[in-house]
Amino acid sequence: MEIKASDVKKLRDLTGSGVMDVKKALNEAQGDTDKALVILKEKGAAIAASKSERAASQGIIATYLHPGDKIGAMVEVNCETDFVARGDDFKKLVKQIATHIAGMQPLYVAPEDVPADVIAAEKELYKSQVEDKSKAVADKAITGKLDGFYESVCLLRQPFVLDQDKKVEDLINNVVGIVKENIKVARFVRFEVGDR
C-alpha cells in the first residue's frame, strides 16, 4: 500500500512521532489516518507504561509568563538522562506544560497526590447529591463525579489548554514514545497577582 507524504506529515505534526513509526501505523491502519492516530496514541501509552518505573532524576525547569505579566507558572519535569533533557522535544513539552498550568490552574499533579481528606469531602458532597438513588446507581455516580473532579484539579488528567482533544498525560506519553524514556512532572507552582 502506498502511503501519502501528506498523511505522514499530518500524523507527525499531531503526535510528534518519528517517520518510521508513522508509516508503520499507517500501514497497519491500511491508510486510515484516524485509525493510525489511535495506534500511535496506544503505542505511546504502552511505552510510557513500560518506562514508568524507571528513575527519572534528570530534567529541566521551565517558566511561562502570560502577556500582561499578571499570571505565571514554573514547572519541573524529569526524565532519565541529561541528553533527553537538553533535546528539543523534551524542552517543548515542558514549556507546553508550563503554559497549561498558567491557563488551567491545576492544584495537584495526579489523583494520587490529592490529600485523603479532600477526597473524603468530595465523596461526602457527592453522596448527599445521590441520596435518593439505589446503591449501585449512587456508587457509579460518585465514581463518575470523582473522575470529573480529578479532571478539573489534576494536571495530568486535564484536557490540554491548546488542544482540548488531548490530555496533558497524552502529551507526555507522546514524547515518551519519541524519546523512549520515563518522563514525570515533579512539581509546579502557579502565580497570579493578588492571589495569595
UniProtKB/TrEMBL annotation:
GO terms for molecular function: translation elongation factor activity. Residues 47-194 form the Translation elongation factor EFTs/EF1B dimerisation domain. Its main location: cytoplasm. It comes from the Bacteria. It is found in: Cytoplasm. CDD domains: UBA_EF-Ts (cd14275). It holds the Pfam family EF_TS. One of its GO terms (cellular component) is cytoplasm. Residues 81-84 are annotated as: Involved in Mg(2+) ion dislocation from EF-Tu. Keywords: Cytoplasm, Elongation factor, Protein biosynthesis. The keyword Cytoplasm applies. Belongs to the EF-Ts family. Associates with the EF-Tu.GDP complex and induces the exchange of GDP to GTP. It remains bound to the aminoacyl-tRNA.EF-Tu.GTP complex up to the GTP hydrolysis stage on the ribosome. This is Elongation factor Ts.
